[in-house]
Amino acid sequence: MFYKYSSFGGRLTPSEANSAFQAQSLRSLKVTSVDTAAEMASSSGASIAQEVNKLSRFQRLFQTGEAPIHLRGGAKDIMTYRGAMVLSVVGIGVSLFTIFQMATGQMKKKSG
């Protein structure tokens, strides 16, 4: 069985072999250009050195074994982790409470 793209329905439809292998319409590709601002390599030399220093600092930080990997970024990582854990516990609690209400028949049915 052969299939052909139907531009009317936007789906594949069954068809005969000879019509399935004939091109319906060939459109040319749109020419796209990417606008990028080019800089001289020498103008960004200082920022490259800063990035290398930052990279080596992060490598030293994450290769030490003193704390779990998700808590090594400092106070911001700790607060993010704790917030995610609190939201997880609250979500599980709400889900279990809703399941309990449905199981005991206490949940009100919405009429609509």
UniProtKB/TrEMBL annotation:
Segments forming a coiled coil: none
Top-level taxonomic group: Eukaryota
Protein's cellular compartments: Mitochondrion inner membrane
Keyword terms: Membrane, Mitochondrion, Mitochondrion inner membrane, Transit peptide, Transmembrane, Transmembrane helix
Segments passing through the bilayer: 81-100
Keyword RNA-binding attached: no
GO BP of this protein: mitochondrial electron transport, cytochrome c to oxygen; oxidative phosphorylation; proton transmembrane transport
A Pfam family of this chain: COX7a
One GO cellular component term: respiratory chain complex
Annotated PANTHER family: CYTOCHROME C OXIDASE POLYPEPTIDE 7A, CYTOCHROME C OXIDASE SUBUNIT 7A, MITOCHONDRIAL
The family this protein is said to belong to: Belongs to the cytochrome c oxidase VIIa family.
Protein name: Uncharacterized protein
Lineage: Eukaryota, Metazoa, Cnidaria, Anthozoa, Hexacorallia
